[in-house]
User: What shape does this take?
Amino acid sequence: MNMIEITKENAADFQELLGEDLVSDMSRNFFKGLAATDDGDKCHGVLVYELLEVDSEEDTKSRIRLLKGDSEEIKAGLQDEYRKAVSESDVETSFFETSEKDMASFFEKIGFSNATGESKELSITVADLAKLPVKRNAKLPDYIQGLTDVSVIQYRNFVKKTLIRGNKGAVEDLAYLPLNWFEREASSCSISDDKIDGVMLIRKTPSGELHPLLYTAFGPDFAKSLGFMLTRTVNYALDNYPPETRIVIYRHNKKVLELTHKLLTGHKGEDVITGTRNE
Amino acid sequence: MTFFIPRDYATLFLDGATIVSMISIMLMSSEARKRGRGDDRCFFGLLVLTCILAARDALGYLFEEKSVPGSRVLCTCGMTVYFLCFILIGIVWAHYCRIRFKDRGISAGNFLRPEYLPGAVMLALIVINIFTGWIFSYDENVFYHRGVLYLLVYLVMAVYVVAGFAHLVRYRSKHSGRAVIPVWLYALPIVCGSVFTFAIPGSASFGPVGVGLSIAFTHIGTINEMLELSYKKSRKTSL
Amino acid sequence: MEFSAEMIINIDLNAAALLFMVGVLVMALRTVSMQDMRSKLLINLIVMAILEAVCGLILSLVDWTAHPDITIISSLIDMVLEIALNLQLCCVFFYVMYEVYKSEDYVRRKFSKFLIPIVILVCLPVVNLFTSFFWYVDADGAVQYTFVYLAYNIFRYLFLVAAVILYIRFKSREKNAQRFNMWLLVIPMFLGTLAEAFTGYGAFILGAAIGYTNLYMLIANEMGYRDHESGFYNPYYLSHLYKLVDNGKYQLSSIITYQIAEEGEVGKFADAIRSVLPDECDTIRTDADRFITVSESADRGYIFMLSEDVAAMSEEAGLEVSVESVTRNKKEIPADFFIDHIRLRKQGG
Assistant: This one.
């Protein structure tokens, strides 16, 4: 079995196993992938992982996003290759999340400490947004708008500002993503003194899912701006997307978790098995 | 309150305002003083002297022509301090202008220069005046009397003040470009203060207010002109 | 001309206030950039103070009891004086708000919310002119206050109190250096108010004049840290920064250095990159052809973006610039990092 690196150039070749969303993600800076192919270039397994905290002073972590293989040997082979790769990237900890018991057992065999719990990913639909405590057709102030009219400089200046404050939401590679990577009309921003001082960034994946990735504001009116941006984005989604459109919220920290509990009462993440391993 | 005449109240207000203003400026410029520049230190000295001048001015009016025990001694000492400050303001002002406006022949701490000799002599005369009364004196009723050398104090002070401004004018003639405020504007508070004092009958003295404002405005107003930092061309090395 | 005792005192107070304010106005108009809201608010404050002092001077200079048929003029001048004072108090509130939040848009949004109280404050002296509801001038020319005057006074001073509360709350939240010191404005005003309350003479205007002079001095003092060619900080700022780093108030974590090829292009370079520099960072001209941007963040993403943006803007402006960066590792002390990588200017005059 040959272990090859999945890059943005060859990711499309593995679309059957990766899915169109991950194929798109392979062009991002911190997404890495490995594929197990035979001599005939048929792919028998893939492993995709995302590096976290690469740019910060914290210990680098790795989140295993996908592990698929025709057999346990292939998966083990991919894991061995993975361990070599992450040791070169100075990764301190690896972690995963899965709802499949077999997969969880495999990870346990290779040294992960497992536990059960609620998934960090919360999946809802656009129809669920109608139940949010948000006014429909609310009149919003002029300084709340979509990202279509903001310039690249304004966007980049905001990104720099939020990175300095250590807030990058669920986007590890926020510094390296262009403005157009986000759904500009669905996303909202707050403008003050001709500068962006708050955003709600939404990504529409190739498969049609909506991923809210960053929701932050600063400045004296940050609390109001957050409320207005949420109102605008929710109303835009209800007006423009089919009700069955999936929205996946990655609750990467406690604040996001608390916010989703507050706004989306009754919605829970899937029951999953999580595991961590020190590298 | 019959002990205080109207001019006393006005004097207290004006001199109190001068002291509060000078202390505020001292606090604001405390950080700049840590740069270690000579002109910043001289500026601080000028502010302190102006405060002493204003404090003495206020206390003087409170005790002059009043039959309070010890007021004659108090007024004599106070007036001595007043005139000492007067001359010191002149000397320090001239020194400040020379450092600030780049007279290359002068170093910040060196006051032992021949051009300050008249000032030094005047300072000595003011101290001796306590025994001689050549500049001023107070009689038994604590009334103020001018001596024969009274005007000499103002003359010496005026010469130093004018010398300081002359230095600014000479500096500007050599370094044109960033001057945004004409020199006469800096002297305006002193001039206006004097006009008010004489134009309003019975008015308190605007002297300390005018002096303090002139000093502060000159310092602040010439900040932009003065920052001719000697930037060096750096070697192209990495950090 | 015969001046009574009270007249002399009030004339002196108003004349002194005028001396302060006219001098500061001339200095401010010539030295301070009129682009930002802070300067405009300061000029408004000074102009209102001058108007108040002129009105006070006119009211003090004329013995109105000798001219009973023109007391309406003294009432009009008094009304203008009160309006000027009220507008000053409103302006102080918005000035402090701007200094605290550094956002013109935010101040404008708040202004529209406070418009009604401000209009009321402007109208009340006008109402008093026709109704004498708050104060009136009696037959002897003395000003008499009604019991409602206290409520009017409290209402207008609420703006000043609100400004103080805003400032105190801001200071308790922000641990970083904030050169604006509101006490330099409030304490002289407070002393003036006390003096006026105890003596009955118009000392508030003198206290206010000192306060506004201090505000101008604060702005002007900042210019001592600015490089006149680029508008960024000059090397004197480094001593101030080092003090903050040394006492733990500033966690210096990264330094980005820009070296331009031509010293003569400093102004052009500064104009090119100004729009891409974040407000959270300080940019300092350290040498004839070298600048640094310092930050409390060591995030490599931000450093990458800023370096890229500076390089791009410089290229667009036709300038040759080299960009380098260094970040502090977690174990290193910020003060040592500062000393190792930034040369402090030699002290001495």
Observations:
- Chain C has a mean pLDDT of 87.
- Chain C touches chain A at residues 100-101, 103-106, 109, 253, 275-276, 278-281, 295-302, 304-306, 309, 329-330 (CB under 8 Å).
- The first strand of chain C starts at residue 135 and ends at 137.
